[in-house]
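Worked Example 4.2. Read the sequence first, then its structure tokens.
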Amino acid sequence: MRIAMIGTGYVGLVSGVCFSDFGHDVVCVDKDAGKIARLERGEVPIFEPGLDTLLAKNVEAGRLSFTLDLAEALKGTEAVFIAVGTPTRRGDGHADLTYVMAAAREIAETAKGPLTIVTKSTVPVGTNREVAEAVREVNPDLDFDVASNPEFLREGAALDDFMRPDRVVVGVESARAADVMAEIYRPLFLRDFPIVTTDLESAEMIKYAANAFLATKITFINEIAALCEKTGADVREVAKGMGLDGRIGNKFLHAGPGYGGSCFPKDTSALARIGQDFASPMTITETVIEVNERVKRRMIEKLRDLCDGSFNGKKIAVLGVTFKPNTDDMRDAPSLTIVPALIGGGADVHAVDPEGQREGEALLPHVVWEADAYSACKGADLVVILTEWNEFRALDLDRIASCMATAKMADLRNIYDAERASAAGFGAYVSVGRRPFP
């Protein structure tokens, strides 16, 4: 099948590459000439493990190409996916549908034959019907269907999530659209991965409900972690005991500095606004958003306490600035709240991140970027672990402690423990939801 993918951001590029690996003929379209030129040279503009290799394989096989020309991309196409950004709209928290609706209108202006228009972007309930209305308004004679196909990709594990999904969600209204989507995902159906085919509104809601629930799990364990610190309990043991309950599960029960990234912040905000619009308040989701911000501020106070009440004049090493490992994504990362607070308090911040420096240089001014953790920690008064990259999981703590001016650690991802830090020569160690020392 020939497929057009509008948008070569994270979702569009990963989806386009993976669809081509299914054997489909995929053309990825974008308005950014620089990005298309890079992709045509085989350069991947985002960091996602394995994506560059899979892209090169399918380009070489002739199944994957890139263009600025939507009309060319739509020639002979049976399905066109809209995979453009839906950032949080300034002022009201809604998802901004500007790019989605613009793409829909351009499709209507350009398309010639029967076509299924598939919304891959995360959009509020009712958006696919708005897309259909916009297309009919521009081109009343176009023979088309709409479908909703939300993505559930974890950054850093997106290829595996696409090729071996927990489920694929498809919202359709017509048998023809259902048949087109079934053919697109046929390789997964043949391997017995669940395909949930439902109506448009339910498909749209599934995405928001799933992300809000996962954000709730993260926020819940972070609240429990704060209580553990007061009571002497260990949040790791608590999370393990909870997670072994099959009704709860162990995923997303890792205490830390709060959630971030491209999905949870904007999707929880959008769901809260949808609830307000329909006079059905999403009270739990609204509380999750509020508590997540409090979690980040609580981390700042932890660091301030380790610096004897003031960041002024302190050199602080920050290990990791992306919102999670195995991605270069800085969107709503805890570092964007915590690092500016350190600098604003007078700290000299030295940071290291395997993939985050390029984005971090623009988003975190006044940070000194180092090549590795040992360089960052040299002469530091405090080392803060913000992102659990593998290279930070097996540090030589003796070497770290010996090169610091004052050996103190804030392990905000619970990678190490107080006993190990003490044995390595650290004079103070705090984590999240566990007893500190001294």
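Now turn to a second chain, presented in exactly the same format:
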Amino acid sequence: MNEEAELLVEIREPLAFLTINRPQRRNALSVSVLISLARTLKELAQEGKVRCAVLRGAGDKAFSAGMDLTALPEGLPEELQKEIQSKGPLQYGLEAIEDSPFPVIAMIRGYCVGAGCETSMACDLRVGAEGCRMGMPPARLGIVYPPEGLHRFIRNLGYAVTKKVFLTAELFEAREAYAMGMLDYLVPEEELESFTQDLARRIASNAPLSVSGHKRVLKMLTPLRDISPEEREEINSIMGRALASEDAREGIAAFREKRDPVFKGK
């Protein structure tokens, strides 16, 4: 398997280690990373030799600090371009994690925020180092998160904790994130890699058909409920109104300028 510049792939059968390799951008998710991630997971599933994968960020600053809004790479097959454009690149990449027949463990150190935090929610388990920080900042940016993303948090954290995460827009320290269920395991920084690898090997030692079967059936039991055309229209209106607001411009400007935003409700 070829190694992608922005996604490093290391196979130690029966495990795979996938590293988002953009440390200079705190491993922000580019379209290329998401396409490479989806392609790699599908290839590994077809080969049938991997029983568990670990997803991590390069360096020690971040698992992923969010989404890097870049254009679609050139030279993609037309069918793939249409699929990515219809779903959005983030949804395309995260569905590949959820549809993978083998479990994917998020190994988290440093910042895990925004789209990076949602990526961790798409994984089957999350292991965090004691110094990591997790959160969702849309309310501080003046935008409304899409229902598919909100559903990932509800499915993992429940309705009440999801409200806390999105309404406060706080950056949670590791111990609070663990108490809230955002992390399944919390370990000392120096033990993160060894603990995660041991966990992955324990999972890989179980019966593959049972593991993949449970993953698939559990997903089928917790689907995003059907949204009526009227509800979808209202959701799109809510999201569009927020995105076009003065508050959204202020939130993004404040983020870039590293200052507190001043919102007016307009």
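Notes for the reader: The chain has a mean pLDDT of 92. Residues 155 and 222 are 7 Å apart (CA to CA).
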